[in-house]
Amino acid sequence: MITFRIDDMTCGRCVATLTQALAAVDGDARLTFDLPRHLVSVETTRTDAATLRSAIEAAGYTPVAVEVAASAVARDQAGGCCGCRGQAARTA
Q1: Which of 34, 47, 63, 71 could connect to 39 by a Cys-Cys bridge, CB 3.0–4.6 Å?
Q2: pLDDT in tens, 9-25
Q3: Other C-beta atoms within 10 Å of 14: how many?
Q4: Which distant-in-sequence residues (6+ apart) come within 8 Å of 11 by Cβ?
């Protein structure tokens, strides 16, 4: 997963613009946006960070690469540090 902080991404229109720009370089990439924290994470198998960065810059934004710890990725995929999202889904 490749993550960028994009401080000038401030609204839904920014998300739409970035979605279009990133889809142009990898239409199969899985995108996750965290608008309040100004983050976009890209799960791709075809494109490298430099290509993604170029696409973001071409769309008019300023990306900064972010290192994401493997434990944070695992926690997010599991639903939380204790797996509570998975348990809530079973009881709901």
Answers
A1: 34
A2: 999 999 999 999 999 99
A3: 19
A4: 35
